[in-house]
Amino acid sequence: MEITNSQENGVNVVKLFGRFDAQSAGQVDEGLQKAVADGGNKLLIDMTGVEYISSAGLRVLLSTAKRINASAGKLVLCGLQPYVLEVFDVAGFTSIFQIQPNLAAALEGF
C-alpha cells in the first residue's frame, strides 16, 4: 500500500494506492492517525487507487471516522472504484460515510 499526504485548501488529503486488506491495514491506520494528528480535523481520503478493500480496511476507516467525529471534524471519501463501492454498500458504510465521486467534488464538500 502506498500512502501520500498533501494539503489542499486547508484540507488534509490522504491518497491510497493498492490493496487495503489485513496486510496493509496497520500501515494505513498509522498513516491516517498521523494525518489526523498533523492536519487537524478536516480529512479527505482519496481511494481512486484502491482496487480492493477487506473488512480490516473497513475497520480502519470506521475507527478514523470516530476519531474525526470526536474532534468535531469532517471526513470525506472519494474515488471509490466499483468493487470497493459495492463492498461499502453491502456493509452499510454508504450511509455512514460521505462519499464523493472525485477529488474536486470532495473538496467542495468542505
Structural summary, described in words:
- There is one protein chain.
- With 110 residues, this protein is α/β, with parallel strands linked by helices.
- The chain has 4 helices and 5 strands; from the N terminus they run ββαβαβαβα.
- It has helices at 22-39, 55-70, 82-91, 103-108, and strands spanning 2-8, 11-20, 42-53, 74-78, 98-100.
- Strand 1 and strand 2 form a beta hairpin.
- Helix 1 (22-39) runs parallel beside helix 2 (55-70).
In short:
The model has no long low-confidence stretch (mean pLDDT 93). This protein is 45% helix and 34% strand.
Outline the secondary-structure elements.
Layout: E1 2-8, E2 11-20, H1 22-39, E3 42-53, H2 55-70, E4 74-78, H3 82-91, E5 98-100, H4 103-108
Parallel strand pairs: 2-3, 3-4, 4-5
Antiparallel strand pairs: 1-2
Helix pairs in contact: 1-2
